[in-house]
Amino acid sequence: MSKPKILVARSIFPETIDRLQVHFEVESNQDDQSWSKAQLIQKLQGKRGAFTTGSERIDAEVLAACPELKICANMAVGYNNFDVDAMTARGVLATNAPDVLTETTADFGFALLMATARRITESEHFLRAGKWEKWSYDMFAGSDIHGATLGIIGMGRIGQGIARRGAHGFGMKVIYHNRSRLDAQLEAECKASYVSKEELLKTADHVVLVVPYSAASHHTIGAAELALMKPTATLVNIARGGIVDDAALAQALRDRRIAAAGLDVFEGEPKVHPALLEVPNVVLTPHIASATIPTRRAMAELAADNLVGFLVHGKPVTPLNPSILGGK
Q1: Residue numbers annotated as active site
Q2: Which whole number is the average pLDDT over 33-53?
Q3: Based on C-alpha coordinates, what's the Rg of the chain?
Q4: Residue 243 CB contacts under 8 Å (≥ 6 apart), including other chains
Q5: How would you list the strands of the sheet with 234-237, edge to edge?
Q6: What H or E segment, with its residue span, contains residue 149?
Q7: Which one, 41, 158, 231, 261, has least CB within 10 Å?
Q8: N- to C-terminal Cα distance for the chain?
Q9: pLDDT the model gives residue 328
């Protein structure tokens, strides 16, 4: 009996490829080429499954052109590259990789917050350029983390992890805004208080964005929101590109309407708005919040678990549209 065919759309750990080959006929992109939509459609012909990352857009056009496709397993917790409604309509399962990256991403979010507040990137560039000739009392003086007010927009697992680090590790006052309020026990564990978005922006010394991307959350932070923030405040985005209006943020940084920003995600990434590259008071990283070897391995393994679980055993681990499973 022939094995089902699957596509691995990006380069991944060789050990994960080896595991998948036990169950499937695997076409892999270990050269890590960037494919156009037409190329992706061509590669998906005859495939029952796809191992995807945030780079591969699975929409109605792709699904219509790939009638044999039954599952797309994302090696990411985010899935804004999936049109889940279109996948559900076509009977194609969508899965993601939650939980395994929570603590690592929270670590990085806090690291980016600290680097932003303490002007680490600016000072390193200054040093590397040979400009450090003497000490001065205000040389790269930033803002404190300990005892400051931390505002978190998006209080899911990662947001809660950042809250715990701030409250328990640095004695920060934690406030948050979310679509729905956490239960009292979770609030107590995070030492976090629920406030309106407007109050959070006006009050917080450091604002961290961890909200999922959707049409409703597009430009959650734009010029109007930036204008509400303290001129001494910082903004950190580890959520998704499009949550922040990058052009408006670059202007606010240039005008010093806020003190600094730290960004791991961007609109239109891997392209970065050129104005962000021209302002000194921003820390920029290339979407690496989950980038530790143990965590990336766990993400890859969970995506593989979903492919094997669904196509071999009929039981995926983390389905996003489980309604389709009734007919499988």
Answers
A1: 240, 269, 287
A2: 97
A3: 22
A4: 209, 211, 213, 217, 218, 219, 220, 221, 237, 265
A5: 192-194, 173-177, 149-153, 206-209, 234-237, 260-263, 282-284
A6: strand 149-153
A7: 231
A8: 20
A9: 45
